[in-house]
Structures are given as C-alpha cells and as structure tokens.
Amino acid sequence: MDLKLMGKVAVVTGSSKGIGKETAAVLTEEGARVILVARHKEGLEQAVQDIEETTGQTLDFVVADVTSETDAKRVITSVIEKYGKLDILINNAGSAFAENFENVSLDDWQNDLNLKLFGWIHMIQAALPELKKNGGAILNLTAVAGKTPPANTSPTSVSRAAGLALTNTLSKDLAPFNIRVNAVCIGLIRSGQIEKRWQAEAPEQSWDDYARDPKFNIPLGRIGDTREAANVITFLVSDAASYVTGTAVNIDGGSAPAL
Q1: What is the DSSP string of the chain?
Q2: Model pTM?
Q3: Is residue 57 in some structural domain?
Q4: pLDDT, tens digit, for every residue of 127-150?
Q5: 74 with 147, same domain?
C-alpha cells in the first residue's frame, strides 16, 4: 500500500527514544521529511544518527520543551523556515507518573498536565496556522489507562483522559479544514522502562520469555514492539487513513477492557 507520505513534512515530539524515535524512522522510510523534537540535544543527535544510518536519509532536530509555549512556537517557525510547510504533527512527549491520589501533590498534578495536556495544546496551537493552509494530520499518543483508569494512577490517567477528550473535540473543530485528529492508546510496548522492569524482576529470563509471561494477561500473548506501534501511527497520519478522524486506537495486544 502506498501511504503517500513522500515529501510530507512531519514533526514528532519526544522522539529521541522509544516509540517516538521508531515512528520517526518509519516515517522517514516512507519518504517523509521528519523533524525530531525533545529536550536533550545528545539524545536527539544519537536518534538522528541511528535513523540516518538505517535509512540513508537526512533528518533534522530541534531541542525544545513542549511545556513551553515559546518553545513550541519556535519549533514550528524553524520547520516552516526550512521546509515551507507542515503536514503532520505527532504529539508523543510524555511520562508516566502514577500514584495513589492522596500521595499526589499539587505540583505533581501541574507538572503532569503541563506535559501531557498543555504540551499537546502548545504544539497544536503553534501548528494550526500552517496545517489549515493545506490540511494535514495530528496524532496524539496516550495510554489505555486514559480509557479505563485503574487504581493508583493519578495524575497520569486523568491527564490522558483529558487528552482523549481534546482529540475528539479537535477532530470536529478542525474537520472543515481537512485536518484529521486521532490518538493511539498504548499498552505494554517494549521500552526503556519496561526493560528496566524486566531486569529487576527476571534478569535470568530472555526478553522473549519475559515478554510472553502469562502474568501480563495480554490476549496476543506478548508485550508489543515499538515498530508495531510506529506502523499504526504512521498509517493514521498518512493519506491511506484519509477518512479516519476523532478515534483512539488501542495498541495493546487486546488487553484493554474498553473499546
């Protein structure tokens, strides 16, 4: 299938590692011009080097903190100055701070919302003037906990639920401009955090054995890979998904109890 991404310009936040980095790689393989965004220059430089070595294509990066409205505007300005347009915005920057409600301070709440909700808002507000010119796609990465929050997951599940609401309402507000807005809800996907858990819990096991442990209760029987998540994300921002907007797709091996 031709995803029709050749020549598209895409910004991916939180892309120095994990799903963000893998998504940048897949977009690049499909012909998009990708700009990586994260807070730390060293991580971005390594990510760009890795992707360029595997794809043979050139990428750019911008060091920025999406919790800053000024930084968000600077990212989009630099992209437009160099490429003259913006087609795709992928909001991946985030973290997972989960605790019992009584143990969460007001600063914890503010920090989480600043990153996972207002970080999206800053980037979307900065990108909208460009996206409205020719249409495009916005993709927000969140977690299945945003749909079905378990106990002891404040503030992360609350900010993720707010992000899902933002995604849905934006899809309606921006549809007249041919801007599609979707989300993906991530379940257990191999990441640095999951690998640390593996080493702490079962260092004697191989990754494949650990990933297939029945304790994870994943219907497909294993923890997912970052490439599997990146492939879905790439499809959703491509023209192959031109009639898909306002939805939140679970990437969780079937484990979420909600649609």
Answers
A1: -----TT-EEEEES-SSHHHHHHHHHHHHTT-EEEEEES-HHHHHHHHHHHHHHH----EEEE--TT-HHHHHHHHHHHHHHHS---EEEE------EE-GGG--HHHHHHHHIIIIIHHHHHHHHHHHHHHHH-EEEEEEEEGGGTS--TT-EEHHHHHHHHHHHHHHHHHHHGGGTEEEEEEEE-SB--HHHHHHHHHH-TTS-HHHHHT-GGG--TTSS-B-HHHHHHHHHHHHSGGGTT--S-EEEESTT--S--
A2: 0.95
A3: yes
A4: 999 999 999 999 999 999 889 888
A5: yes
